[in-house]
Design brief:
9 helices, 5-stranded mixed beta sheet, 269 residues
């Protein structure tokens, strides 16, 4: 049995299938971790959703910002990206969206020693807090008031976490931290204006979220995607897996139940 983690698919179904073939993935024996952003921009988001859904318990996919946007488009909160029109017109759209909104925000495997969130785990949270806050926003994502909730959680403010945050401000920050975070100020304030590599963020006086000086070290290594400009990166605390497949880069997997973390990649054409 093998456990593989894969970076952002963003609708790149063909590359996804070639990567699964390369690692000889067996749904009957192996497990697949998907770091979010299953959909958007690529031409085959519908095929990706159907394929991952059909894997059942053999796949664990966390929600990314583009997945949230698809859910919001389904409920008429935002306009769907042009690449998502096949999903919006699909006869099984309702079923796929229902499945998607029950994906976790944060996945933790204590035996394996890894956790996974699309953008990462906010640097000033310990693991217990992160799990609590993930569960907190999974409730409205899966609930009957999701449309109203989504209308109120889009936005960039507040930038800094405070335990006293209430209602939509609190949920907006939690959602942004798990799905949109890249660079942070020294005090943990989130910054969305700077794009690009870790060096670009450092030049602007920011830190990659996992290098914030006050970061709480977690007991488990964090698998994340979302940061294609960073590419593959691995140390004893994190594994970054978004290598920009949808932008003509590569699709990357790693085998988590291995003593050595090495990228397994296919070119995206």
């Amino acid at each position: 049995m093998a456990i593989y983690a894969v970076g952002d698919l963003q609708g790149c179904y063909t590359a996804f299938q070639r990567l699964l073939d390369k690692v000889q993935f067996s749904p009957e024996q192996d497990t697949l971790w998907l770091a979010g952003d299953l959909v958007s921009r690529g031409k085959q988001s519908l095929e990706v959703l159907r394929a991952v859904k059909d894997l059942g318990d053999s796949a664990v996919a966390v929600l990314g910002n583009h997945d949230i946007s698809l859910i919001a488009a389904h409920y008429g909160v935002v306009k769907a990206h042009n690449s998502l029109q096949p999903v919006m017109k699909a006869p099984d759209r309702e079923e796929l969206i229902e499945w998607l909104r029950f994906r976790p925000i944060l996945h933790v495997d204590s035996e394996l020693g890894y956790c996974m969130a699309h953008a990462g785990v906010y640097p000033l949270w310990n693991l217990n807090q992160a799990q609590q806050f993930a569960r907190e926003i999974e409730v409205p994502i899966r609930g009957a008031t999701i449309k109203r909730w989504l209308k109120n959680v889009y936005g960039d403010k507040p930038e800094l976490w405070n335990e006293s945050l209430k209602s939509y401000d609190r949920h907006r920050f939690i959602l942004n931290a798990f799905t949109r975070m890249r660079g942070c100020q020294q005090n943990g304030g989130l910054n969305y204006s700077v794009k690009g590599t870790a060096s670009d963020h450092q030049a602007a006086g920011l830190y990659p979220w996992f290098q914030v000086p006050q970061r709480v070290l977690l007991p488990y290594k964090v698998v994340f995607g979302h940061w294609s400009a960073m590419g593959f990166y691995e140390n004893n605390q994190v594994v970054s897996l978004d290598t920009g497949c949808v932008w003509g880069g590569k699709l990357t997997a790693v085998r988590l139940d291995s003593d050595i973390i090495q990228p397994i990649q296919v070119a995206c054409k």
